[in-house]
Amino acid sequence: MGRMMNVRWIAAALAILVLTGACVQLGRWQLHRLDERKTRNEVTRTNLAAPPAPIGEIVGPQGVVGDQHAWRTAVVTGRYDASKQVILKYRNVRDKPGFEVVTPLILPDGKAILVDRGFLARQSSELMPQHVPAVPTGEVTVTGRLQRSERGGRTTGGTPEGGTARLINGPDYAKVLGLDLYDGYLMVTEQKPANDPALGGFPGPEIDDGPHFFYALQWFFFALLAIGGLVYFSRQEARSDKSAQRQPEVADRPEARAGAPD
């Protein structure tokens, strides 16, 4: 029985140590995410403060909008191709569900950039917006914030189907629309001629440290709890062993034997 209890205690101790190690690693992972967020915030602040520039000067000939370009203000001039407009479904802006209207802007050099023209709040339970503001004709100059192509992991919806999609992804759109698109898109902040007022704008970026530090503290606290539990149960086990050792000693005393019946 004692050997079985000893094996059970060792197994429990190992499980607690594994749990403690996992909590410590999760805490370190949250601190790593905090460092990444601080780095991203610094890039965002720098890009927000930078003056507007032509998109080609910002992203270079590769035409790829990366994390280092997020929220950078770019200026493009071209003509919208209304025939290849895409309505984004299941979008949410300022806690309001709705749609976003994405239209390719054809540039003078033949390349195109996806322009998120604005947000339309969903009315009742409509599956598609009842009215989409018309696309301006003729030459248009758009000033906006660059964003990298959206990637939803296992979530599908980056490829337009029937004029709708769930994500904005330059390479996926290019396959369907037949355009030489930048890998990324532009969120309108200003347009000449002016954007239709029915299209709502977008909030700026969240520049804060997020909850990662407090999540890290929680995981480290759980690790301390696990170690504390191991120490407590170790002491309890030691006390049980001492009690078990004292009982035979009492039984072997002469007084105990003399009082025993024949």
UniProtKB/TrEMBL annotation:
Chain ranges passing through the membrane: 213-233
InterPro entries given in the database record: Surf1/Shy1 (IPR002994), Surf1/Surf4 (IPR045214)
Domain of life: Bacteria
Keywords: Cell membrane, Membrane, Transmembrane, Transmembrane helix
Pfam family, one: SURF1
Membrane-topology annotation of the record: Multi-pass membrane protein
Keyword Cell membrane applies: yes
Region of interest: Disordered: 238-262
Keyword Transmembrane assigned: yes
Main location, first listed in the record: membrane
Bias (Basic and acidic residues): 238-256
Localization, UniProt: Cell membrane; Membrane
Gene Ontology cellular-component annotations: plasma membrane
Family assignment from sequence similarity: Belongs to the SURF1 family.
PANTHER family membership: SURFEIT LOCUS PROTEIN, SURFEIT LOCUS PROTEIN 1
Protein name listed in UniProt: SURF1-like protein
Biological source species: Kribbella shirazensis
Organism classification: Bacteria, Bacillati, Actinomycetota, Actinomycetes, Propionibacteriales
